[in-house]
TrEMBL record:
Organism: Zea mays
Lineage top rank: taxon: Eukaryota
Taxon lineage: Eukaryota, Viridiplantae, Streptophyta, Embryophyta, Tracheophyta
Identification of the protein by name: Protein REVEILLE 8
Amino acid sequence: MGAVQDQQQIELPLSPEDVPFAQVYRFVGDMFDADAPVPAEAHLQKLKEMDDITAKTVLLVLRNLENHLSVPQFERVRRLLSTYDPTRAMSGQL
């Protein structure tokens, strides 16, 4: 069995029943919802109210997202996404 290193270890493999992925991705999506901005403190409070495995999964997903978005190979996609206007089609192409 492998383990993900963090403050504590999470034993793997996890089954889909172990982590409520819908809750994880709903939380992440809410963080980036421009139509309903929420203060960071409110997100932190929601995170504190989650069970331990769900909160750790949220943090892992956010850490992975940050790492992936910061690599040079993603620069072209990052620039393209910065041109996105939800009221119109994207101005660039992948």
